[in-house]
Amino acid sequence: MKSITKAVVFCVILFDTVIASAQYRFIKAHSDLENRLLSTDASLLDGFRNNRQSPKLISSLVSLKNDTNRKIHRFSRNEFDVVRWNNPEYFGTSRTNFTSSKWIRNLGIHLWKNPNRFWSWESQDKKDYFVINPVLDLSYAPAVGSLDTFLLNGRGVELYGQMGDKLAFHSNVYDYQAIYSLPVDRYRDSHQVRPGITKHNINSFDVTEYFYATAYLDAKLLEKRNDSGKVDYSIIGTIGHDKHHIGSGFRSLILSNFAPPSMFAQIDYQLGPFKYQNLYKELVRDMTKDTTKTWNKKYLAMHRGVLEFDKIGLELGFSEMIVQTRSSNRLDWNYLNPVIFYRAIERDLNSPDNAFIAFDAKWSKNRWVWYGQLVLDEFSFGAMFGNRNSYLNKYGNQIGFYYRPNSDAFRQSFVQLEYNAVRPYMYSHNTSNYYSHYNQALAHPLESNFREITFRFFGVPNIAQKWSINTTGIVAWKGYNSNGQNVGSDFRHPYNTALDRENSPMLQGEKQTRVNWLTTLSYYMQPNAKIEINHRYFQTIGHQSATRNYLGLSIKYNFTDTRESYLF
Whole-angstrom Cα distance, residue 63 to residue 10? Predict the structure, then answer.
């Protein structure tokens, strides 16, 4: 009863805070913080993957067994709560370990007031703050029994803050030197790009060098709350340069965080139980350049609507995406209408634009969360219900679940199982309007003509809360193009060059079985600093057979991004 009372008091305090505070930092898909969200209550995961670190969300993440209204002064294996430590705007600043040393305090009040804030300023009422953090992302993972090595040397700066109750911002910039593993090298050999990054240089030591930056500005444009404090309606606008991941799964067949960051404009609406989003992204077209030697552009216009049935834990979503190119390299203004059906516009313009529609659902019950997606490209009723192997049957589907075990051994944990299947020629087009950015997939990294099963486990031991274990296992089957024949495995090839238009079964072509298994054991030296020991097993059977075992060590400081999406 006491813990319930404390939780209620805490939620009231946070609820009072949200009315007066601004927007909140986004939680990256596949990040450590999102894993902790999933292991606490997977039903909290927003299908838009727009989870912000709001008071409502944070109140659901904290442990109820501790006094939720006091500051935390200890950092031990029995009292570590990464959510509390990394949200001092709610729990108050608190120095710990070496940051409480006298020589640190003598450097000034702005330095290390909280472990996750190297330099910070905040207003007297705590509603405005500005933070500067150094970032380290270091990894070394040689392959056992091979000369193959994975190496990352990343350093950067993180800036974030908020101003009043309307505006928040976040920015990262990194400088990297990298030696990549076999799967990434193969991707570069096939597509002349590195997954997840854009322009890069290779120095005389065969080391890849590149800059990497993300940023966004988040503004609350309109909001109305009822007497109980719940939102009746709201409009939030975001502009930035970053990735997106749509859906509740590990993978997304709608829009994933595999391709590099790109310029975007986004508007999120909420009207009672109905949520709606407009998203516009500027994309690099097909690696060709204009007369100024700038990459030619194409654009993604997307909208997604979701209806939530809170009482039964059901969420139903519908999305429409269109990829368009114009000779002027500009976005067609016809797609700026936020509530119009894009397919109708495409037909009226008689344009060669590439249209998709998608359906998704999520159902939460007790410790289970079930979810799924269905994406259709150039839907043909005759082909769908007539010839199932027609090349016009371009679609992908996903089904999966999360389960939170009731375990005494783990304070937080979840198990995930997911199945994805994408038909041949999916995401392709007969122009450069295929579904890509910088020659990389906007959806699943395996692109098309594959089946995949993914298993994940994440856990935080009760007796050692500074530790966490995260393991991801993936088995996939894919058919590849060979001998110049287009069997639908690569969306860069026009679908009108299909090998056999009437007989295009799944996994046609040169077959390959892919196995990826990544296990990471993390130890937190500080709430924002951790050491990781990881092992990755990679094997391909059939097409391009190979086996690699990578055993690695990583050090991360203030690094909140993730690379799990690059397991392919």
Answer: 11
Residue 27 has φ and ψ, to the nearest 5°, of -95, 115
How far, in whole angstroms, is CA 383 from its chain's centroid? 34
CATH number of this structure's domain 2-566: 2.40.160.130
Tens-digit pLDDT string for the chain (568 aa): 444 444 333 343 333 433 334 456 777 888 887 887 788 777 777 777 777 776 666 666 665 434 333 444 455 555 566 666 777 777 777 777 667 777 777 777 888 888 788 999 988 887 889 999 999 999 999 999 888 899 999 999 999 998 887 899 999 999 999 999 999 999 999 999 999 999 999 998 889 999 999 999 999 999 998 888 788 999 999 999 999 999 999 999 999 999 999 999 999 999 999 999 999 999 999 999 998 999 999 999 999 999 999 899 999 999 999 999 998 899 999 999 999 999 999 999 999 999 999 999 999 998 999 999 999 997 777 777 778 889 999 999 999 999 999 888 887 899 999 999 999 999 999 999 999 999 999 999 999 999 999 999 999 888 888 899 999 999 999 999 988 899 999 999 999 999 999 999 999 999 999 999 999 999 988 878 899 999 999 999 999 999 999 999 999 999 877 776 678 8
Answer left, alpha or beta for residue 162, where phi above 0 means left and psi between -120 and 50 means alpha.
beta
Question: Residue 237: which of 219, 217, 262 has the closest Cα?
Answer: 219
What DSSP string runs through 80-148? Answer: --HHHHT-HHHH-----GGGGSHHHHTT-TTEEEETTEEEEEE-TTSS-EEEEEEEEEEEEEEBTTSS-
Domain boundaries, the chain: 2-566
